[in-house]
Amino acid sequence: MLSNRADVEVVSIFVNNLVQSLGGPLECKMFMSDVSNMYYDAWCSSMHVPSSRFFCSWHVDRAWRKFLMKIKNSEKRAYAYKIAKALAMDRNREQFEQEMNSAITDLKTDSETVQFAEFLQGEFSRSYCWAHCYRSDGFLEKNSPLESISKAIKNVFLQGKKCKRLDKSLSDLMKLTRDKLFDQSILAHKSHLPVDLAFIQKRHDVYLMSMTPDLSFQKSANGWRVITSPSDEPHEVVQYWHANVIFGVSSVECAT
């Protein structure tokens, strides 16, 4: 879907078409997007409401850096960013709210950082959406590859520029896909695979071993005949027990 607009109405049309293609709405536990409500509202208009919502870490960081440019003093700008980043990386949920209030109070004591303190209280009042203490370790591990790909697209392929032309963006995405496939090809020919790829390869090999192209079943007098291949003898599967049901009470008797 291509459009020159980026608002809730256009994204809702895309999500609605996605629901029709899938045959029904999706249900997710965690929804991650940028700090605006556009994608979240569009998702909830057609899909099930997620149980948790999170902001992308790089979108939060970008919003903070953009607002901090209003502070002319570089030292105070760096100090305010350090306080906000420490809050985001804090893993102690029990002490987070106390640390948040203390940081807001500290920023309000300076006339140059008071606007940033009000910005945190207003735009980022829902700390459960961006603070890492509200996210599990598994979620952070899954989010790290997405952040890595986003940085690669922006800094390597787009050369740090904001590309608005669709033709150039598609070309850069094709280059990223080519490099990823090339890296996988190199890893496939190495003697020692990474732990995650080795686990995937192991599961794939087990699945291939369980598949038998000549597998077939035939009904026999006592059960079924399982034929794995024309050269092997068939396996006989028979019923060796039966249940007698008397007044709703079942008893199993061995017939062998």
Task: Give the helix/strand layout.
Blueprint: H1 8-22, E1 30-33, H2 38-46, E2 52-55, H3 57-68, H4 74-89, H5 96-108, H6 114-122, H7 137-157, H8 166-188, H9 195-210, E3 216-219, E4 223-227, E5 235-238, E6 241-246, E7 249-254
Parallel strand pairs: 1-2
Antiparallel strand pairs: 3-4, 4-5, 6-7
Helix pairs in contact: 1-2, 3-4, 4-5, 5-6
Structural summary, described in words:
The protein is of the alpha+beta class and 256 residues long. Among the domains are: 1-55, no CATH class; 56-134, no CATH class; 216-254, no CATH class. It has helices spanning 8-22, 38-46, 57-68, 74-89, 96-108, 114-122, 137-157, 166-188, 195-210, and strands spanning 30-33, 52-55, 216-219, 223-227, 235-238, 241-246, 249-254. The protein starts with 7 loop residues before the first helix and ends with a strand. Mean pLDDT is 78; it is low at 241-256.
Keywords:
two-stranded parallel sheet; 256 residues; MULE transposase domain-containing protein; elongated; three-stranded antiparallel sheet; alpha+beta
Shape: elongated
Average pLDDT level: 78
The helix/strand series, from N terminus to C terminus, equals HEHEHHHHHHHEEEEE
* Class inferred from helices and paired strands: alpha+beta
Low-confidence stretches: 241-256
Helix content: 40-55%
Q: Spatial order of the strands in the main sheet?
A: 3-4-5
Number of strands: 7
**Beta-strand percentage?**
5-15%
Any idea what the radius of gyration is?
29 Å
Through-space gap between termini? 65 Å
Number of helices: 9
Protein name: MULE transposase domain-containing protein
